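Reopening this ticket.

The earlier resolution said the output was attached, but the attachment link was broken on my side. Pasting everything inline this time so it's all in one place.
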Amino acid sequence: MKELNEKDNNEVKKNLPKETIKNLLLTGNLVYEKSAEHLKQYALSVEQYNVLTVLENLKGEPANLATIQNSMTSKMSNTTRLVEKLRLKGLLTREQSQENRRKVEILITEKGILLLKEIEKAQFRKEKEIMKNLTKRDMVTLNKLLNKIRENSL
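Inline output:
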């Protein structure tokens, strides 16, 4: 029996990078799905919510598409399409710059800010629920490790 455990342990060690990446993907998908499920009641996708929070964090300063794209959690998002959908919902404005007609200025509207305020408390509860099995110390360590992976990938 001890031989079997040692063999299994060696297999895990040999495949540890693969297992780690698999766990990261599974966990990332789980968190994404839980977030998407929660935001559905507000008629928002995770990516649309991300755009609104990026704009809110700019505190009234206009953004362009590149600024939003660079701040997105998913670099694969079609920012132009997301911005247009949010504009049609009245959650942001998209106007041509007065100084540079090729530049587009994007701002969150009051309606967008109010929606984010409505989502905020429930979002905080959802995030706590997702992370309930981790201590604060676990989360600090996890964030350090995840940052380390991303820094290595740049």
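Reporter confirms the inline version is readable. The two ends are 44 Å apart (CA to CA). Residues 2-153 form a domain with the Arc Repressor Mutant, subunit A fold (CATH 1.10.10.10).
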